[in-house]
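Box S2. Input/output pair 1.
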Amino acid sequence: MLTDNLQAVLLNANNKDADKREDAIWELENFGTEATPYLLAFLKDPIWWVRESAVKVLGNLADESALDGLLEALSDEEWSVRYEAADALKEFNSEKAFSALVKALDDPERMVRLSAATAIKEIGGPASFEPLLKALYDENPVTRSEAAEGLANLGDKRAIPELEKFLQSRDDLDKVEGAYALYKLGQTDKLSVLEQLLNSNKEAAREMAVTRLKDLNK
């Protein structure tokens, strides 16, 4: 039997006003996994930002019964919904979720690929090595950065040859991430590369070099 509070929230679930439906989604989060079936229904909402919010809350709750719905959301027509679905799937200890994230590295939208790469990085483990190696060549520099960091975190020295190629990049941001990852993998001579990049002509690279040196306590 539904509690009075939950019934009150569900009154807005079918409201014609999309904003009120979205409000209901965030209120449903307070009911924990009891709200999962109602949140899953929102994944069919005609308004993309309503679906997006439902995906976010389902990710926060990480209820295993929501997995199939989130996998389906990873194919949503709206990229921002797919972005949130990839982020949500990192909360599930599931081969199905991991396989879907690997597949999302081929998504046509760069931000979805970024979300998938970030999720794979956070999941970690031996299975993430090959997908992260693939993401290392994404056209989005931020995705490449996440991939390089993920490979460094794994501590798998098989990544060294590929990361060495980063140091030959025309993009100083790639060089920063390559040098940082290589240092973490035992190539301590790459510290000097990071220090040199403090004088990069690219502001983003200079700032990231400062960040990475701080990460290394240098």
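Box S3. Input/output pair 2.
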Amino acid sequence: MISLFAVSATAQGYWTQKTDFGGDARYFGSGMAIGDKGYIGLGSTSTYPSNSDFWQYNPAVNAWTQISDFYNDRIYSACFSIGNIGYVCTGCYWDGTTGTQPFVFYRDLRAYDPSTNTWSQKADFPGTGRNGAFGFEINGKGYVGMGLHRENSGANTYYNDLYEYNPLTDLWTQKASLPGSERSYCVYFSVNKYIYVGLGVNNVTQYLMDIWQYDSQTDTWTQKSSFPGPPRKYASSFVIGSKGYVFGGMDATQYFNDLWEYDSFTDTWTQKESLPSYTRYSSIGFSINGKGYIGTGNTPNAGGQTDELWEYTPSTAAIFENQIENQIDVFPNPATDYINIFIPEKVTIEIIDINGQVIKTINNNGKERTIELGDLSRGIYIVKANTGDKILKKIFIKK
């Protein structure tokens, strides 16, 4: 069902309803963005508990196109994209019952190439077959972890492991496990070369609200500010610029349509504009060209699965901030010993402290540059670059 409207304001972000998902309404689906297109597929519909169809959304024309089906039916797979290739990993087949063996769990990895509209098999995920895992890309590599495996006895085994996939070698490497609780159906997003993971559930009734940051360069986890809303599972996420957004989900007694923004520089959360529609869980989130999208999911207060697609536009100030920040790449951030700076132009870079004093001046040749920070005190600094027609700035934190 669709009734187009928007709740708008220039000082605040706003939601706009877009064309409904092209396939049947569903939840427990999978999705990602590849380039300037969004993708949603798999999942459970009112007709079939597991599905294999996949669909592409083009925001330029606000339209859906069906692509090649995935090779089998399944729900709740992990997804990520690297360059112009999308990846679907793990998940399970569900027969729709609560019998003794209602699930078949998978470990395979499949790659989708939009240029040929084909799927190809890659090296299997080395961990245990599972569903409810997360998948994300950072620095040209894919990461899959967490999730659960249900035994025939009905007992769930939850995981806190993490694996890295290198598409150049088609090899997996196990990385440091999350120090926090094992979990499934968590929320995840990638900002400024870090992965953020949190929320979810680690047994039938224990809902979590902790948030952890993963640094792929040092293979370490750092606990960050906890999520300020109610703990939950089946939440969705997307990233706009340097901000991560967490939407919806459910706990044992209620469903949500709230939206929360995470600022990775200040490690703070801000509640934003709630979706002007029904509460929902297990939706798919992705972002394209500075806007976030939430599609499909389950809306128990509206009769079940939904095919709605919503677009979130941040405030005018946030759009400007993200446009400027996205032209400078600084990582790791926060940093201890060094930062890497990438600006795709030949400019002079200044490192400035919070008092406005220039601490360092560096000539940049338009490529990645490593800057040692051993002589800097702890605090907040600004990377400033003057290109001649604009001034670019980005904040980083020296720990």
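Caption for Box S3: Confidence is low (pLDDT under 50) at residues 1-11. Residues 316-325 form the longest helix (10 residues).
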